[in-house]
Amino acid sequence: VKHNSAAEWHTPKGFLFSGIHCGVKKKRKDLALFYSNKDCNVSALFTRNAVKAAPVALAQEQLARHGQIRAVVVNSGNANCMTGKRGLADARKMVKAMSKTLGLKAQEVLVSSTGIIGQYMDMKPILAGMKPLALGLSCEALSDAADGIMTTDLFRKISSRKFHILDKEVVITGVAKGAGMIKPDMATMLGYIMTDANITKKALEKALRKTTDLSFNAITVDGDMSTNDTVILMANGEADNRIITGGGRPMEIFQDNLNAVTRELASMIVKDGEGASKFIEVRVHGAKDDRQAKKVAGAIADSLLVKCAVAGGDPNWGRIASSAGASGVRFDPEKMDIKLDGIVFLKAGKASRRINRKSTSVFKGSEVLIEVDLHSGKGKAVFYSCDITKKYITLNSYYTT
Amino acid sequence: VKHNSAAEWHTPKGFLFSGIHCGVKKKRKDLALFYSNKDCNVSALFTRNAVKAAPVALAQEQLARHGQIRAVVVNSGNANCMTGKRGLADARKMVKAMSKTLGLKAQEVLVSSTGIIGQYMDMKPILAGMKPLALGLSCEALSDAADGIMTTDLFRKISSRKFHILDKEVVITGVAKGAGMIKPDMATMLGYIMTDANITKKALEKALRKTTDLSFNAITVDGDMSTNDTVILMANGEADNRIITGGGRPMEIFQDNLNAVTRELASMIVKDGEGASKFIEVRVHGAKDDRQAKKVAGAIADSLLVKCAVAGGDPNWGRIASSAGASGVRFDPEKMDIKLDGIVFLKAGKASRRINRKSTSVFKGSEVLIEVDLHSGKGKAVFYSCDITKKYITLNSYYTT
């Protein structure tokens, strides 16, 4: 995957970006800024974890009062979580310093944090970094901003689409960070999606909920999320299209392109799973409804034994059947089909071949496909996952030191 | 842990055991028999997985009709799961052959299987093994029977208690198998508990449900179980005590000793987790009720990042807080305490020390303790888990070949 050439992405009109190193992390960039020249309608989704980081609590408080923002400032290296009142005060300080630097009202700036939990923020470098961060704003610096939000990510994650709504050109551009995807409910996921589309706040909220279900929540199980998870969608209207409301063809076009951006970001997050060597796509068909299909797909995608089997190139479909059965969804195993990389292993509950790695070559490529058909309805869902390797254990046994 | 000396356990009166190698596995014992000279009241719990192995379906069918049994025959090496009608016919053949050999009615014999999923049983060695298995019955052969049910287990699991109910000596003895405990919902757990207590079927059922919640289900999350999980409790009344009904002091004594046996078996299963190097005990206090406490304890015990932290000797309490928060239970993080191996790391939501492995030595022993107090009620629970090591990945990437 190449994500390094600026030529590969479009930036929406009226947005500027910046990313610098201020000193929270040792060497890599640790501050990012996403900025719009004009007021943005905004929609955001946050973690449902009972333990919420200070910036999440603050952003929720701000958005409950004001529906429009101009900028989001992000630090990486420290999650500002489990830091009590002092953490909340630190998040407020970041908002205050950034809004002052940019000449905005405090309510127009949101803050996000990602990194280690339970340590107070080192505010000195962060506050000192606000001015150089603002001075670095440009429409070319998107990759710097994308770098600034990374923690253990191995590559930056940017996706964009340019399309037309009637005669107007519209751009949607998103950046994200992830990693630690082996246990999705513990990985901090941040996503910032910017568009110059002219769209109502209500339509924006609808679009974000829908697209998140198909992307970021299809790599995460059942609302279990980390303490800092945040997805923010900002629209500044600079494309000057006739305003998009919740329905009709313009909304469809917007939604489709938004889905393309978020799905690409989600798959990048999975591909960058700590220590992962293979990208796993789980497709479930024939469930009673989409919700049940997603539950089954999620159970398979989240199964450690399935991940191990993929890592070992081992077509152990019995583990797939068993994790589907453990999902809580009722189905008739005698109707179930299982295909691995397109090869049928189970047909109507009957094994169609003996498992033998020598004779059956599956899970060899860097992208593998697991397909399950329950033959009991029209529900379908896709879930993304990655394998687990020894490298994961090494990475996660020694994170704080 | 020593579990090899026959002198360490008691056997209940009237029970005989046998374990042999018949040829399903290459070398190790693969058939086991638990037998009572007299009719046994029986209570059993089975997997709630939608995909049930043939012997589970058959045992449920048998027990729905008859409340008493005399014997259980177990094979290891093949789970007889996802094997359709042929699998069910094979399970019936095992019952028929064993009951005939023992001179019993078919309804008096149950069968269990554990091992690989999705392959038809090799019935020839199994049927040929029935006679030598029956001939091997003795009250000394408990360890052979315990060996016969093992798959990837590294040591046999036996626990027993001798106690008095009024003037009568009563014995409870259990054997179990587990392994693969890193993702509890995928590990096949088998447990056979035998007692010479005189106890009603109703009291037996109550006792088994209660004890399973405190033991085997405290190493397993939310009813997610493998395709073959089975726990059977048999009581033949040979101790000749006044019959135990559902209440009173005799029932209490019986329950306490049963709990001691099942908790010891459960902890052995965890200690034998594939590739595990450390035994983790998670204690949660101060939840609204016991159910919520168990949910929080289970979420922590099941967190892969927590397991990795323990493996690495890393006191990363932030991961513990986050997995508690992701459990679905609502609580106030500002009240939470976290202790690791007795050392306070979080007090009323405040970090009490900086994480530093050099200055803080925790998770060094082979048994580690994680304590969480939510300070919002009287609910409490204990959950058992083990760490994850690179060895686990190696073991599970190459299971079928």
* Major sheet of chain A: 8 strands, mixed
C-alpha termini separation of chain A: 30 Å
The shape of chain A is: globular
Biggest contact: A-B, 71 and 71 residues
The assembly state of the depicted protein chains is: homodimer
Low-pLDDT segments of chain A: 1-5, 181-186
Along the chain, the helix and strand elements of chain A come as: EEHEHEHHEEEHEHEHHHEEEEEH
Relative strand content of chain A: 25-35%
As a percent range, the share of helical residues of chain A equals: 25-40%
Structural class of chain A: alpha+beta
CA radius of gyration of chain A is 22 Å
Number of distinct helices of chain A: 10
Q: Which whole number gives the mean pLDDT of chain A? A: 89
* Number of beta-strand segments of chain A: 14
Can you tell me about this structure?
The structure is a homodimer of 401-residue chains. The first copy, chain A, is built from 10 helices and 14 strands. With 401 residues, chain A is an alpha+beta fold. In chain A, strands 1, 2, 3, 4, 5, 6, 7 and 8 form an 8-stranded mixed sheet that branches. In chain A, helix 5 (201-214) links the parallel strand 7 and strand 8 (230-235). In chain A, helix 1 crosses helix 2 (84-102), helix 2 runs parallel beside helix 3 and helix 5 (201-214) packs across helix 6. The longest helix of chain A is centred in the middle third of the chain and has 24 residues, at 248-271. The model of chain A is unreliable at 1-5 and 181-186 (pLDDT under 50).
